[in-house]
Amino acid sequence: MSAISLSAVTKRFGSSEIIRGVDLTVNVGERHALIGPNGAGKSTLFNLISGQFRPTSGQISLNGRRSDRESPETIARRGVARSFQITSLFARLTVFDTVRLGVMANHGVRFCFWRTAASQRAVTNDVLALLEDVNLLHRASVLAGELPYSEQRALELAVTLALRPEIILLDEPTAGMSVEEAAQTVALVRRLTAGRTLLVVEHDMDVVFSLCDRISVLVHGQIIATGAPDEIAKDGRVNEAYLGKGLH
Ligand SMILES: Nc1ncnc2c1ncn2[C@@H]1O[C@H](COP(=O)(O)OP(=O)(O)OP(=O)(O)O)[C@@H](O)[C@H]1O
């Protein structure tokens, strides 16, 4: 069974067809990158998978069940989390409280269980464990908006993981980072996504090639190649359409 499966998916906005017949399979436990030039439709594809958009035609399934007519909330409850740039929203909350919101959303949605003292302790323990996972324990009382950029992205990862997702969608997790910060983030993402399914949009080819098991290349709303990093690197069409330009 695949974690994410798209079959003949199209998406139109008015008269422009942005996604044009995409077939894509992401296996359970796989780390899969979606690459392609600006405007290729990568964010649109993410929005289709996470339920923010409905396909114009075609089918999407998550863990073997049809999902393309479900709301983003239902899809989230089915274990799909997508990262958002939340630190601008929660700039005045502490790091601890930001992650606590995510943990409470998860517990609250599932059990409405966070009202007792014991459950409060469980929430606090979850938050501390997540902060430790993303190396932010020492920053717990700092305001989210005061974190340096790479730590803000780590905080977003913690909130995404607070939802205990099986399938994680990350949109450019290393954008705007220095080489060292990107390397740290890759290590973090690799560790935190072990045993889960990851679909990641990323422009940095070093990140893509070091992190992902397979890569799909989207150009003008169509997937022109899918394969292991070494196959993609030597694919003539990919080099012509994208990598050749992207790498130089
Ligand atoms: N809601 C919308 N209404 C109309 N057009 C849209 C909408 N969302 C996206 N588009 C168009 O779809 C095309 C693909 O955009 P999208 O953001 O999916 O590309 P992308 O591959 O993620 O690009 P980038 O790498 O620059 O983020 C663009 O031409 C964009 O203008």
**Class from secondary-structure proportions:** alpha/beta
Arithmetic mean pLDDT: 89
Order of helices and strands: EEEHEEHEHHHEHEHEEHH
End-to-end separation in angstroms reads 38 Å
Question: What is the CATH H-level superfamily of the largest domain?
Answer: P-loop containing nucleotide triphosphate hydrolases
Number of helices: 9
Number of strands: 10
Query: Spans of 5+ residues with little confidence (pLDDT < 50)?
Result: none
Strands ordered across the widest β-sheet = 6-7-8-3-9-10
User: Which architecture of the largest domain does the CATH hierarchy give at level 2?
Assistant: 3-Layer(aba) Sandwich
Q: Gyration radius, to the nearest Å?
A: 18 Å
Global shape: globular
Strand coverage percent: 25-35%
Q: How would you describe what is shown here?
A:
By secondary structure, this protein is α/β, with parallel strands linked by helices. The chain has 9 helices and 10 strands. It has 2 domains: 1-78 and 194-248, 3-Layer(aba) Sandwich (Rossmann fold), CATH 3.40.50.300; 80-164, P-loop containing nucleotide triphosphate hydrolases (Rossmann fold), CATH 3.40.50.300. Helices cover 40% and strands 25% of the residues. The strands form 2 sheets. A 6-stranded mixed beta sheet has the order 6-7-8-3-9-10, with helices on both faces. The longest helix is centred in the middle third of the chain and has 17 residues, at 95-111. The termini are far apart. The structure holds adenosine-5'-triphosphate (ATP). The site of adenosine-5'-triphosphate has 10 residues, from helix 1.
